[in-house]
Structures are given as C-alpha cells and as structure tokens.
Amino acid sequence: MVLYVLDALAELPVDRVVVVVGHGRELVTKTLGDESPSGLAIELVEQTEQRGTGDAVAVALTGLPEALTVDEDGDVLILPGDAPLVRAPTIAALVRAHRGADAAATILTARLDDPSGYSRVVRGKEDRVARVVDEEHATDDERDIKEVATSIYCFRRSVLAPALRRLIPANSQGEYFLTDTISVLHDAGHLVTALVATDPMEAAGVNDRAQLAVAEAELRDRTNERWMRRGVTMVDPERTYVDAAVELGVDVTLYPGVLLQGRCRLGPGAHVGPDAHLVDALVGAGARIWQSSCRQCEIGPGAQVGPFAVLEPGSVVPEGSITGPFYVGHQPGGEL
Fold this sequence. Notes:
By secondary structure, the chain is of the alpha/beta class. It folds into 2 domains: 2-203, Spore Coat Polysaccharide Biosynthesis Protein SpsA, Chain A (Alpha-Beta Complex), CATH 3.90.550; 209-329, UDP N-Acetylglucosamine Acyltransferase, domain 1 (3 Solenoid). It has helices at residues 2-10, 25-35, 53-61, 66-69, 88-101, 140-143, 157-165, 180-187, 209-229, and strands at 17-21, 42-46, 75-78, 105-111, 120-123, 129-133, 147-156, 192-196, 233-234, 240-242, 247-248, 253-254, 258-261, 265-266, 271-272, 276-279, 282-283, 288-289, 293-295, 298-299, 304-305, 310-311, 316-317, 328-329. The two termini are 40 Å apart.
C-alpha cells in the first residue's frame, strides 16, 4: 500500500521522502528498493519500538537533512502508509490551503454520513480546529460530528518538533499519538485548519481485511478507467483485474475473468481471456490467450495459447505458434 502513497508523492515537487519502518522492515525495505518510483529521494529510518504515531514522526524527522530541519519556512507532509487512495492533487490542495491560511498545521478531513470508527474533528471559535478525538474517548455530542480526521497532515516545520516534545503518553503502553499535536498547537495559540476532501474515499484507511477489499475495489476501478481511456478494451471491467505495474499496449482486449499480476507487458492488439491468469508475462503484439495460466513466460507476437494451457516460469512460445488445448509449457528448448 505504501507504494501507492509514494506514487502520489512522486507527482509532486517534494524535497525528500522519509519512510518509517518497524515491524516487517526487511520485507518493506526490499519492496521499496525494488519498486519505489524512480527519481524520488527516499530515506528509510527505523522505529525500533512501536510507540505510536507521534513517536514515529519524531523518528522520521531524524531522516531529514539538517539543512531542511532548520528551515523554519518549510513544511512537513505526513501521510500514513495505509492510505492508498489519496491522490496527488488532493495532497497539493492540502499544502496550498495550509500555506494560504499561514497555519501551523492543516489536517485533511472528510465528511461522512456514517462516521463510525473514525476520529472526530472538533472545531472551536471561528470554526478553527481545536482537537481530534478518538471515537472511544468521544462524548455523545462529539460522536454526532460528521467530520472525521484522516492521518494526513501538513505542519509548519518550526512548530512540529516542539509540539511532539509536549506530547504525553496516551495509554499504559506508553504510546504517543500524533493527533494530540493538534490540541497542543491550538492551546498554544497557533492556527490549525482543515481541508475537507472532495472525495471521501481518499480518506479511507486500511485497518482490516474488509477495508482492504474496499480499497482494492476502488483502486481497480481507477486503474481500469485509466487504461480504457488509453485505448484498452475491457469487456467487463468489474471482472478484470490489472496490477499497477502492468503495461498494456493500444487496442489490447481483456475479456471477463482476466487477472494480470506483477510486471506483465502486453503488446498492441493482444487479446487475453476469458478466464486467464498472467504473472510477469511478456505478451507480443496480436497474441491470443484464453482460459490459461501463464507465469514468468514469453509469448511471441501472433501466438495463440489455450484453452487450458499452463506456461511454467521460463516458457517461451515462439512467434505465430499455436499451443492447442491443455498444453504445458516448460523451459526453452522443448517442442510445441
């Protein structure tokens, strides 16, 4: 999920990105090294003890160059790794609103008909943001508030570190919560503002499998729409699954039940499906694949694969070849 956040940041003129890693850091570090957007300067820092979001941000500040740390006119964006639906234009709008108001901090919020499960944004005089309260600690009146907080912030750099130092542990586990910096800044007389997201879906985080399914469905819709506007035909977009790293040529046709995973590349005019599963497959122009499973293989231009074929890793189907039904492909050198 963090890769989607990094993709959004890659579209913006950010100076440096710091990613805080902790649990599962080896896998996260490898994934970021292999798949992070090119041209994005990323620094990884480790939160050795998971002591809450406030502590994570304090750790993140250690990953910024000293020249940036002392720049009082600069701003710090904070985004969680489990918010894959946020878009670059929304992040840019948050920064513009923050700077336009000359605020100490600005938080991205959303208005939901059913805010259950989310922290509420409590406003004070002149509609200024006063604090963010967790639902479990909210009063009945606060639970009626429809405006909810995301975990996406823009802070004036000069006030962030002092605010973090004023946090106190929020529970018996000794965790420090970033949300508490909002009340710290407000009570100190600083201006805290909010930008309400136009699309509430961008505020959606992923905390369980149900929320993950919702996020995946939204991302699939966005991905499919983008490819269809580029000239790809999807007979049934609701039953077509295309990973973010997949590359599709013009006039590709995808039939119902297609699943493209990893770094698949499909040449112009290729037809895939129905009911085909491809992983890291290279498909030539005009090739035809249906009701087959193809993994880490190469299918030449104009070749026909299936139905019910299985191409194992390393398989090569030469240009113009026809495998026929129930074909099992092996390493190069075998006969078709």
